[in-house]
Amino acid sequence: MARSSHWISMVFPRSPCRRLGGAGQVVCVTGASGYIASWLVKFLLERGYTVKATVRDTNDPEKVDLLLSLDGAKERLHLIKANLLEEGSFDSVVEGCHVVFHAASPFFNDAKDSQHLACHSLYGGDKYYGAKATINVWNPKVQQPNEFSMSQMWILAGSFGKDLNSIEPGWQVLLNFFLYCHLPSANVSRQLYGDNNTRLFTYWTSDAYKAIGCYNLLCSGFIQINSDIALGASISLLSKYSSSQYHISIQVWK
């Protein structure tokens, strides 16, 4: 099976503790035709933001039709052709943006004798009790204190901005990032790690990120039952390009 790694980097060019002001502000989403990025575009448009969204081909209906059909897209969505592999193609895109959500990632499929690129199984019934994911572990260098990178499994119920219930386990790299500015009631430390290590995390929210949510054992949302590794702990075995590959398997079970 051919596998690829993917991470999302969210870049806040101004004060990371400054909340977005909503309608009228310009934000950028790269790789907007991707699954998570398209949800993010929808989320931002519903809240009145003007969105500059990049795709590889603005004339490809398969890539842009869904985005153009979103509420508010006609008035506030600007699709821009950009390729992550072309140096400088994003420079003009991010200019003037209050926030950049960088979700673009190149995908290479050069595996030989591969059996499947992706597998999808569908089982009958309407009750599901868990999910499992295997995630390649990297240590992308985060240079600014207002940046982070992560790779995660995202389990959602409800709708964004209303009654979203989310569980998000995976790994993340943060550098002095004040994560909880948007969660004023969360009883957590505002500075998580202060280093560039790759760390295990699980995030949850039950009210669409409004007032409830936490990343690790600093809040009451988690109870430690296994002493082998703790949420927030560093992951020491890391994949390297054209070298050894390491992964973690994460299971969420009800």
UniProtKB/TrEMBL annotation:
The family database entries (Gene3D superfamilies) matched by this protein are listed as:
NAD(P)-binding Rossmann-like Domain, Outer-capsid protein sigma 3, large lobe
InterPro entries in UniProt: Glutamic_endopeptidase, NAD(P)-bd_dom_sf, Neprosin, NmrA-like
Neprosin PEP catalytic domain mapped to chain residues: 108-254
> Which BP terms in the Gene Ontology apply to this protein?
lignan biosynthetic process
Provide the protein name: Neprosin PEP catalytic domain-containing protein
Q: Which organism is it from?
A: Vigna mungo
